[in-house]
Known about the structure:
The chain has 14 helices and twelve strands.
Amino acid sequence: MTGQLLTINFQHWAGRATLSSHGSQRLLPGTGNSTLLAVNEHYLNIGLLNAESPTAITETEPAAASAGLAPTREENTLVLGVVNTSAAGRSLPAEELSIYSLSGNKKTTMFERLHSLSKSRLPFRRPESVYFYTLHKCASSLFNDYVLKNVKRLRLVDYADRLNKGDPVECVTFKEKGFIYGPIRLSTGPPSATYSRLVEPASRRDFIRDKIAIFLIRDPRDILVSSYYSFGYTHGFSAVKEIEERQRRTRELIRRQTIDAFALEIANATLNHFRIVDRLSQACNRGIILKYEDMIDNWEKFSSGLTKYLDIGRKTLHHTYQLSRPLENESETGHRRSGKPGAYKHKLLTSTVDALNIIFASVLTRFHYQP
């Protein structure tokens, strides 16, 4: 028996379904007014062509799916399995479905049945879940707002964002397959709920050892500079009153300092954040470290690393590249001030840079940054 992979697009349930077999739109009819589809090792009779009412979806005899193609879910497309191409009868192009018109409600009901059946019966092989770790001021907003939302076959779960907005989070749980968790900002500290419920549990060696993880970092000296302007002047406030009050107090304290005093004051805390990254990345058996600077100056290397464990389409990658380009002129009021690597060289005193190079010596060596 020969077979072809068949997919149905459910984006327009009330209208016409798009059926495709490796690019060619076709539907192989079964007997009578039904269409015979093979789903894994079972055939399904689906009454697509009954002009009076949708036929109930029923399982029939098992059959070997000789093509051996595993069903998957990709965006709005459901890959059903293998179609028996040796069945007699002419092929019905998908566009002819509208000729055998079902009323809108009946057609919708029929496709809802098919969708429901697919969710309950098909053993989708979802990819293993991925954990996206980073630090504040490493373009984490770009990944939160756009990139991670557009990873194929993995659903984004951003617990930090939900907690910061005050959304109810009864339990922070992690599933083995089908999700991408993040951004998990390891620079988040106590006494926040984000730290106690998310960051601290996810920062344990035994937690990350058998998982897939991506670590996005940036030159710690640039992180200090960006943090000064962001947390001191431009970063928005949380809708949660307790968090907002803490953010406002932090802003006032930062504004009383020069950028050099601020950088030296929080350098040791930032050093500890990088030590956590180092510890977790070495404990993780399937992890990769990505650098912000490569995203700006070596996109080919960065995108190659980003897609090692994530299925990201070319359009998403291209748009990510465009969104990540540094601003030509520095913005003093926007959330994104500049984005150019090496800003610390122009913003900090030489004596401050020298002191930071000593503090971060192990980090600069470990992650291949120039002193």
